[in-house]
Amino acid sequence: MILPLQNFTNLMQNMSATVQGSAAQLIDLSVGSVLRAFLEACASVALWMQWLILQVLSMTRAATSNGSDLDSWMADFSLTRLPGAPSVGDVIFARYTTGVTATIPVNTVVMTSDGTQSFSVVAQPANPAWNGAGGYTLAANVASQAVPVQAASAGTGGNIQPGAIGLIGSAIPGVDTVSNTAAFSGGVNAESDAAFRARFTLYINSRSLATAGAIDFAIASLQQGLRYTVLENVDTAGNTVPGNFCVVVDDGTGSPPAGLIANASAAVEAVRPIGTTYAVTGPVVVPVTVLMTIQTSNAATAPAVALAIQQAIMAWIATVPIAGTLAASKLEAIAHATDPSVISVTSTTINGAAADITIADNAVMLPASVIVN
């Protein structure tokens, strides 16, 4: 249904015409007249009420709801948004002079140099420096110690670059500096509105259960960032086995942990068709090596541009779905889109050949090497 919305001018014209049509003589509606001021006030209230009506309509539909409104809409179906995850990594606490033993307590706060991101030291009993009493020991003759930290809040903002951390939240006796030599990873934002709506569609389509859609929904609801596929009437080796299906699941690493495989198996078991057999496995990993040559309009920034292209291509390869295709033209398009100074991209090869590659139905690609000259 298309709503007959009106702007301020339309409202004024309609009200003026109605007033004049009901009067026996000409009405003064010139600027500054009392009646015009009254009609303008009514038109303003009508616009406000029209806006409220639109807000209510948008909140009563999943397609137009956003944020907390979408959460409350989905709650009627007992669906909740998949949560985000904080990033993790190691920081190095160091000092200028040795000679005394220092302790780095759990929950010590460190921050990026600009103070926008905070991280807390977390317990890791397997760390050789763990003292068993809620902290890490920096021995008297040791100048630095690496300890694990976790972002204070979930989200991709915590996936910082090397060297970003430089501040200690509170003084630690015997410790002077903190830094990170490697990038942090694992930070994931909460499920987006678009992804939430897409998963709701899978949910509705799975209500009959014992369908491919039910299995898709079961796997998609485990956690964010999963790549998966369902192969019907085959076993894990690809042999034809009527009545059997194989679910290939990957968390982006190529080697999903046993806990994820177990959770996926339990989810599939709850919705699988009766009389069928199944298997849940990790993927076969296909390493991908990319080589390309670029030309830029600014030689001074060429190394930084090449590094940015390398990172963009590696990130793209990590998102290619199971049984996907990696096209050389796509990689060249990514290179051009990364920086406007890129003039040309040539000599692009994938695994040593100037051709696209397509992997098997149970395989995923992982970037082994990306070289941009």
What order do the helices and strands come in, and which of them pair?
Elements: H1 8-22, H2 34-59, H3 68-75, E1 88-94, E2 102-105, E3 109-112, E4 118-121, E5 135-138, E6 144-151, E7 165-168, E8 177-179, H4 193-205, H5 212-220, E9 227-234, E10 240-250, H6 258-271, E11 277-281, E12 284-296, H7 302-317, E13 325-326, H8 328-338, E14 342-350, E15 357-358, E16 363-372
Parallel strand pairs: 10-11, 12-16
Antiparallel strand pairs: 1-6, 1-8, 2-5, 3-4, 3-7, 4-6, 9-10, 12-14, 13-15
Helix pairs in contact: 1-2, 4-5, 5-6, 7-8
Shape: extended
Helices and strands, in order, run as: HHHEEEEEEEEHHEEHEEHEHEEE
Question: How many DSSP H or I helices?
Answer: 8
Overall pLDDT, averaged? 91
- End-to-end Cα distance: 56 Å
SSE-based structural type = alpha+beta
Spatial strand arrangement across the major sheet:
7-3-4-6-1-8
Helix content: 25-40%
The strand count comes to 16
Strand content: 25-35%
User: From the structure provided, what is the oligomeric state, counting identical versus distinct chains?
Assistant: single chain
Major β-sheet annotation: 6 strands, antiparallel
* Rg, Cα atoms, Å: 30 Å
Low-confidence stretches: none
